[in-house]
Amino acid sequence: MSSTAIILAAGRSTRMKSKRPKPLHAICGRPMLQYVLEACYEAGCHRVMVVIGHGKQEILAQFGDDKRIAWVEQTEQLGTGHAARMCEPHLKDFHGDVFILAGDGPLIRGEVLRTLHNVHREEHAAGSMATAVLDDPTGYGRIVRDEKGQFLEIVEQIDCTPEQREIREVFPSYYCVKSDELVFALGRIKNENKKHEYYLTDLYAILRKAGRKVVAVQAVTAEDTLAVNDREQQAQVDALMQDRIQRRLRAAGVSIASGMNVYIESGASVGPDTTLHPFTFIGRDSNIGAECVIGPFATLPRQSIVPAGSVIAGNVSVETAKLQ
């Protein structure tokens, strides 16, 4: 069955203390939104709806050339349920499954979305969600189950009872819903909560109460749940992404002498048997050949090309033109 995605990217950067739209803040050299888009494409989505609002022109300037994206504007900030409802005109002509994701969650991975989608189809569910179990669930919506372990509802933290706050299974906003069931539920979401917002999370309780099957699968690691709401979280996510980049390169045969003193932006390619020494910076989309020695104290700008067998060391900044 075909799949599409809705990415919610209309929020302001209020807690970031920034005029820049939140989805454009960088993680390891790339906008957060790009990571979410790539996860959707990796999971098999050929078409994606991105809901924008604040700073829409800046977002369009960076991503407007991607023909796989349908842009949807949310002019009023009335909650996530309202944001998703803005996509209804696109959903009515689509018959398949819909992922719904947050544009400020760059740690999301395509493999997790594929796992979620596979369970969703195998269970013939109307709606499915990927959940995580955290030592500290503060800030997340809690997964409430019945005595048989079946899903009942998601309760946002602000609306939790003291007992519900103790629940450690949380919902990090990984949705998968049949398109017709999504349209059905979106029309029934109400804003009867303490924030008077339309919570998208309510759609699962709406489906369950209507007799539809809802599945909650624990498929998200604690690391993958972290989204970016402020500069501190941005730094934490950046560090986690940097670790992923370095682990992937080590697995491909690259030696990184001191990982904490090396910074590699997203999209950089490094050949096997290359050694990266401390205090080295490698810019986005650079291509370094095999059996090179880079650093210490080397700076490679973005899109640098380093031939195999090169040695670049010393307190220098290497210009792209000198590497081609």
Description:
By secondary structure, this protein is α/β, with parallel strands linked by helices. It contains nine helices and 22 strands. The strands form five sheets. Strands 1, 4, 5, 6, 7, 8, 9, 10 and 11 form a nine-stranded mixed beta sheet that branches. A hairpin with a 5-residue loop joins strand 8 and strand 9. Helix 1 (about 30-40) crosses helix 5 (about 110-120) and helix 7 crosses helix 8. The mean pLDDT is about 95.
Task: Give the helix level as a range of percent.
Answer: 25-40%
**Terminal Cα separation, in Å?**
45 Å
Number of helical regions: 9
* Unreliable stretches covering 5 or more consecutive residues: none
Instruction: Quickly give the structural class.
Output: alpha/beta
The geometry reads as elongated
Largest sheet: 9 strands, mixed
As a percent range, the share of strand residues is: 25-35%
Mean pLDDT: 93
Q: How many strands? A: 22
Please compute the radius of gyration using only Cα atoms.
Answer: 22 Å
Spell out the key features of this protein.
324 residues; alpha/beta; 9-stranded mixed sheet; 9 helices; elongated
